[in-house]
Write a structure and sequence with these properties.
By secondary structure, this protein is an alpha+beta fold. The strands form four sheets. A nine-stranded antiparallel β-sheet has the order 1-12-8-9-10-14-6-3-16, with no helix packed on it. The protein has a three-stranded antiparallel β-sheet with strand order 2-17-15, with no helix packed on it. A hairpin with a 2-residue loop joins strand 9 and strand 10.
């Protein structure tokens, strides 16, 4: 079960931060998106739906060979097509990386949160607190940092999103807002899109501390679906109404929701954005590149392995190797000393014998000369 505990002010209409964003919001984006959502839920006659889907696949480059159902004729509505599932064999979930990519799409930006600031795209920044609704508390601020990545799902991409790791969700917050486009070209011009748009935040923890997973709505995104809430009395209702709301809804989960690596979390209609913010050791590194295509299940980042004492085993093995080399060198040195001493003793005897022989020869020579003089 879940418990709806509060509605808190979101400040959606405050601090637009950019004049273009304010003007953009004057367009009837929510109305248009709701119409698209309404149409997407309706079953359309095949003679109408099939040409639309064929045109959509051609224009956005949809690869239906990866879909669990490849035939266009198998879909009865736009919504069914947008939230189509993939064949299990086409995406392999990496089992060794601490985090995996949660969706298909493209990397907009990623990095380490510095001074509580996140970049939605290069050069466009916003405060973490405005995006999450509050400042996250790190479990181990001395050894960990807050990291983030922004992933864009284009209209032609697989629209369902999955869990990047095993973690526990203890809170869900629905931020009603605008439905501006999250296309990267728009995000570079209109600031604060991700802060102002409607979004659903899943907040909780993983093995290294704080973890959040946010699905951000966009123009023509008919809904944000969260699977573990869909049968609950507190199921999230997104893209409802024709005006932007001013209240956020916070839901505390009781019991908390455990999600496993690769498990389906929910889905979009048409495409949108996923934002991950998480606590991890300072040594964490991303396996991502800005503007590069990503696929569900690929490694998202790495944390250098450590033992229970916090020692990097690679460094420890290297130190052990150096110690072994040092011990070997000591043995070699001792052996050389023995060899040198062994060789030195007969050499000294030979030298002494040589000296005695030479001395004897000299004595004999002098005796013979003395005898010749006397004669």
């Amino acid at each position: 079960t879940t418990s709806r505990v509060s509605s808190i002010s979101s400040g959606i209409n405050a601090e637009y931060g950019d004049y273009l964003a304010y003007l953009y919001q004057l367009f009837p984006l929510r109305t248009g998106s709701r119409i698209v959502g309404y149409v997407g839920e309706k079953q359309l006659p095949k003679p109408v739906l099939t040409p639309i889907l064929n045109l959509y696949c051609w224009y956005f480059g949809v690869n239906l060979e990866e879909a669990a159902e490849e035939s266009i004729n198998a879909y009865n509505s736009l919504g069914e097509f947008f939230q189509r599932e993939l064949k299990p064999s086409v995406r392999q979930i990496n089992s060794t990386s601490p985090l995996v990519v949660p969706c298909d799409g493209r990397v907009l930006h990623y990095g380490r949160c510095k001074d509580g600031i996140v970049e939605q795209v290069k050069g466009v920044r916003y405060p973490v607190e405005r995006f999450l609704g509050s400042s996250p508390s790190l479990q181990d601020p001395a050894n960990n940092d807050l990291f983030y990545c922004v992933l864009y799902l284009a209209p032609g991409d697989y629209h369902l999103f999955h869990s990047p790791c095993s973690w526990t969700v203890d809170k869900v917050i629905h931020f009603p807002g605008t439905l501006m486009s999250v296309n990267p070209s728009i995000c570079k011009i209109v600031r604060n899109v991700l802060v102002l748009n409607e979004r659903v935040l899943l907040s909780g923890s993983w093995e290294h501390g704080y973890f959040s997973y946010t699905a951000v709505g966009a123009t023509n995104v008919g809904s944000i679906r969260i699977d573990f809430l869909k049968d609950s009395e507190d199921a999230i209702q997104t893209n409802k109404g024709f005006l932007s709301f001013t209240k956020d809804t916070e839901i505390l989960l009781d019991p908390k929701q455990d999600l496993s690596r690769g498990e389906m979390v929910g889905g979009f209609n048409f495409g949108s954005t996923i934002v991950l913010m998480f606590e991890a050791p300072k040594s964490f590194t991303f396996n991502l590149e800005t503007d590069r295509t990503i696929r569900l299940g690929n490694p998202l980042g790495e944390i250098p392995a450590t033992d229970s004492d916090g020692e990097n085993p690679v460094l420890e093995d290297f130190r052990d190797t150096l110690d072994a080399v040092e011990e070997t060198l000591d043995v070699v040195e001792e052996t050389l000393d023995v060899v040198v001493k062994t060789l030195a003793e007969p050499t000294e005897q030979l030298i002494k014998l040589g000296d005695d022989v030479i001395e004897q020869i000299i004595d004999n020579t002098e005796t013979e000369r003395g005898a010749e003089k006397a004669a």
